[in-house]
Amino acid sequence: MYSEIASNKRKSVLLVIIFIAIIIGLGFVFDSLYGVGNYSGVSLAIIFSLLMTSVSYFHGDKIALATSGAKQIVQTDNPYLYRLVENLCITVGTSVPKVYIITDPAINAFATGRDPAHASIAVTTGAIEKLTNEELEGVLAHELSHVKNYDIRFMMLVAVLVGAIAILSNIMLRSRIFRGRDNDNRGGQLGGILMIAGIVLAILSPIIAEIIKLAISRKREYLADASGALLTRFPDGLANALEKIANEAQPMANASQATAHLFIANPFGSGKKFSNLFSTHPPVEERIKRLREMGK
């Protein structure tokens, strides 16, 4: 467990370094496309990367929660859910995170934050209504395991930084298209090459974003499953919850590619085999199988 926590902290630092490198690269391409000179594009890229890194670290959880439509609650709003979270936190030895509810009939949940002292857990109304006490407890234990293992910091950074790369590349491409005619005076052949470079950049950036998202090891989900099962001492609780999620396969209304990897299950539902190849989560069937074996 401690080695996993140390690994997550190292990967968080590595992710920030990769992000800054990519943004600086985009700034260099911007200078080349528009002939700005004096590396002003690179300078702006450095400022942008440092700003986005700070925002993602200190406010990334708020962005993820707002994107999913989560609303914070206090104990009196939902004593049942809050009590489950409190009891598990006492068992695991961590402070109680902020609790949020997402108004959505799908069964799902996620945890976010930069460390256990600044963590949040969001649960859908579908999970609260459709899962039994033991099943919901298993889901919450899984998410608390992500909190204790510092998975939440790495996943939060991914959600914001990857989104920033996609947005910046899209802005650059649109700028190239709308300003293309003005820049054609610098040479038709050169203008065509730069146009192609901008299009290639816009295509590659989402792919790079997906590769970074896939850096979230599927083994980490298995570890959270196992840790959560050990916490509740009832692996079948989470296994039954995952079975309900798999059988329902209901997509969430506010599902987003940027935050999909945060959830305990794919918020877009199932049925797309090709998309499963790029999933940050292991197959639900395999997760259920391992949990059943733990319960024997």
Helical/strand content category: alpha+beta
**Estimated radius of gyration:** 21 Å
N→C terminal distance: 23 Å
Q: Enumerate the spans where pLDDT stays under 50 for 5 or more consecutive residues.
A: none
How many helical elements?
11
Strand order of the largest sheet: 1-2-4-3
According to DSSP, the number of beta strands is 4
CATH level-3 fold name of the largest domain? Zincin-like
The major pleated sheet works out as: 4 strands, mixed
Q: What would CATH call the homologous superfamily of the largest domain?
A: Metalloproteases ("zincins"), catalytic domain
CATH class of the largest domain: Alpha Beta
Give me the secondary-structure topology.
Layout: H1 2-34, H2 40-68, E1 70-73, H3 79-92, E2 98-102, E3 109-113, E4 119-124, H4 125-130, H5 133-148, H6 151-183, H7 188-213, H8 218-232, H9 235-248, H10 273-276, H11 284-294
Parallel strand pairs: 2-4
Antiparallel strand pairs: 1-2, 3-4
Helix pairs in contact: 1-2, 1-6, 2-6, 3-5, 5-8, 5-9, 6-7, 8-9, 8-11, 9-11
Protein architecture, described:
The protein has two domains: 2-64 and 154-213; 70-152 and 218-294, Metalloproteases ("zincins"), catalytic domain (Zincin-like). It is built from eleven helices and four strands, in the order ααβαβββαααααααα. It has helices at 2-34, 40-68, 79-92, 125-130, 133-148, 151-183, 188-213, 218-232, 235-248, 273-276, 284-294, and strands spanning 70-73, 98-102, 109-113, 119-124. A four-stranded mixed sheet has the order 1-2-4-3, sandwiched between helices. Strand 3 (109-113) and strand 4 form a beta hairpin. The radius of gyration is 21 Å and the shape is elongated.
